């Protein structure tokens, strides 16, 4: 395995996860804002590493595996920590929907790949919109404190509700695309 810049950026995103997590626990002034900055940088590298890998023809199997894992881990850790801070019923439902969808679609993609049908459940435009709303919402909710009187956390919460709706919609789209394969009654090969 050759360590390329895109792969290094992905690995740095994975390394940022425990630091973001630790910043939820320390009692430092502006720890949450530092976590937000680190989270935002990780989100930027998510876009940048993929763009560079395609542009420089440096895509790798390991990078293709690690990139979505890094994203899902970062989102899951942040959502769980936000829920720990505000254990309300609606937020719990939203967190369960988002994490549950990620597990479901990851399993679906893996299963479809085993059947040679991976392209049937490729990333959709709705999935990209969902990711944009979700990443923005989580960042705003981590920041937590108002900026210039603007209620950042509350706006982030509303955006997270939108992300949850898009999450359900995108999951429906993926499951609908995979349904013909799932409904096939022929025996699977061993």
Write up this protein.
With 190 residues, this protein is an all-alpha fold. It is 77% helix and 0% strand. It has two domains: 1-74; 86-180. It has helices at residues 5-25, 31-55, 61-85, 89-114, 125-143, 152-182. It is globular. It comes from Sinimarinibacterium flocculans. One of its GO terms (biological process) is glycerophospholipid biosynthetic process. Its EC number is 2.7.8.5.
Unreliable sequence segments? none
Strand content: under 5%
Radius of gyration: 18 Å
Q: Give the number of DSSP strands.
A: 0
Question: Largest sheet, if any?
Answer: none
Number of domains: 2
Beginning-to-end CA distance, first to last residue: 31 Å
Helices and strands, in order, run as HHHHHH
Residue share in helices?
Answer: over 70%
Number of helices: 6
- Structural class designation: mainly alpha
Overall mean confidence score, pLDDT = 88
Outline, from the CA principal axes? globular
GO molecular function, one term: CDP-diacylglycerol-glycerol-3-phosphate 3-phosphatidyltransferase activity
Family: Belongs to the CDP-alcohol phosphatidyltransferase class-I family.
Membrane topology: Multi-pass membrane protein
Protein name: CDP-diacylglycerol--glycerol-3-phosphate 3-phosphatidyltransferase
């Amino acid at each position: 395995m050759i360590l390329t810049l895109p792969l290094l950026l992905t690995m740095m995103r994975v390394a940022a996860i425990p630091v973001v997590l630790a910043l939820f626990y320390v009692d430092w002034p502006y720890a949450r804002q530092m976590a937000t900055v680190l989270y935002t940088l990780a989100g930027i590298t998510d876009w940048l590493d993929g763009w560079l890998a395609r542009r420089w023809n440096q895509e790798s199997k390991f990078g293709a595996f690690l990139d979505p894992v890094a994203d899902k881990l970062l989102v899951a850790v942040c959502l769980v920590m936000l829920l720990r801070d505000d254990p309300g019923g609606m937020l719990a439902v939203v967190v369960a929907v988002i994490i549950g969808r990620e597990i479901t679609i990851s399993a679906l993609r893996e299963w479809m790949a085993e059947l040679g049908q991976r392209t049937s459940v490729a990333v959709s435009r709705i999935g990209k919109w969902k990711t944009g709303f979700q990443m923005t919402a989580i960042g705003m909710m981590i920041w937590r404190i108002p900026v210039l009187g603007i209620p950042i956390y509350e706006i982030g919460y509303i955006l997270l509700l939108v992300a949850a709706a898009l999450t359900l919609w995108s999951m429906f789209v993926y499951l609908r695309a995979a349904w013909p394969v799932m409904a096939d009654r022929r025996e699977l090969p061993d």
